[in-house]
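Entry, Tuesday afternoon. Goal for today is a structural model of the target with S-adenosylmethionine bound, before we commit to ordering more compound. Inputs were pasted exactly as handed over by J.K., no edits. I checked the ligand SMILES twice against the vendor sheet because last time a stereocentre got dropped in transcription.
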Amino acid sequence: MPAPRRPRTPNARPQAAPKADTRRAPSARGAALRMLNEVLGEEPRLLADLSDAPWAAGMAGADRARAQRLAAETLRGLERCDRLLAKHLKKLPPLPVRNVLRIATWELAHGEAAHGVVNDAVNAVSRMPRQGHLKGLVNAVLRKIADEAPSEWPKLRAPRLPDWLREPLVAAYSSAQMLAFEAAHAAGAPLDLTPRDPAQAADWAEKLGGVLLPTGSVRLAEAGQISALPGYEEGAWWVQDAAAALPVKLLAPKQGEKILDLCAAPGGKTLQVAAAGAEVTAVDLSAHRLKRLEANLKRTGLKATVIAGDAMEHEGRYDAILLDAPCSATGTIRRHPDLPHARDGAEIGDLIGLQSFMIDHALSLLNPGGRLVFCTCSLIPDEGECQIEEALERHPDLRVDRSALERPGIDPAWITEEGGLRLTPDLWPDLGGMDGFYMAVLTR
Ligand SMILES: C[S@@+](CC[C@H](N)C(=O)[O-])C[C@H]1O[C@@H](n2cnc3c(N)ncnc32)[C@H](O)[C@@H]1O
């Protein structure tokens, strides 16, 4: 029988570093508009890929952060914006004008002074070569929205996920749980930190005015400027969702162990493994994303061997392997509200194929008695539970180590039939939720 064809790696294209742009930098609102136009455009892009776009090169850090937030929050509330606007639009204007209206609607619903918001929106449209004539319409609509939005916004339902994602999730969970996911996505995410020294987590929670979560992460309600927080410069902690910090806790790296982090960038998990004193090799296909890993290693003073390359071609023998495989990232919508709009699910089939090839390759690199943690930040069981069930069928000597799940803060209700952990954004409702994730510990 011919060997099965390996699916193409969806994000295998090398990413070039952005070129500096000498044109005048856009305002925060102008940049947010460009971001929305790109996320919702014909060739949709993710916000994360736009943060260092050439057109944003001259922007001050604070403006850049404001633009990102404005774009992300408008996308999070897009359905609500459109519902408010629909009452006042007989016909949908072209996308750039619609996006000006959407951003302004979000701002008006969230307490921004109407005068500035409406003026800026009218000016933005009047500068559009082909849509300038719509400035009067924009002015009239936004004056009405300014009156209504603050009181109407909270009455609108949490935005629904698009069908490409809602349908598989309703089939896998339930309609009620789906509504709870959507409410969690609408609520957004607090800022979680992983302390370099887990024994000092409570101290950092106190110093930063946060709370210590049951699994050992520190949660802050208000992020502000992260690089200005105590402990940032000295690398005493790094930003990492509490759910994303769990795979390495299950891996339980030990001093001196030889550990491979197969899909490592931007590196939150590599830092955890290195902080435990293990000898870590971090591999990732994206040289661009690895730059962030290198910067994080420098800031924290932690050590890792960093390799830009294809996980499927990596060779060696390791005591333990972490495989945080490329996936649909549908568990991270609280923090990436652009994802449901910029994606359409077309690449999920390829990703599922790649994940199973990566599991098999990772298993071939394990020392006898070694352990593999497979995880994905996805809500889709095909990228989680099903991968493990199928791996167990392909490898009769493989078993799932359930004892690895006996860790502080892990609720037994999260444990799945095959022995993995299923985390969803509606968990910890009183603490502010967590990202969706799946993880399992395999040994052979
Ligand atoms: C979920 S992210 C990893 C997140 C990372 N473990 C962390 O904690 O920061 C998946 C990563 O897989 C990388 N990737 C995708 N295909 C790959 C391949 N064939 N070989 C190595 N890395 C790959 C992507 O560049 C991406 O950085």
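The chain has two domains: 28-155, 241-443.
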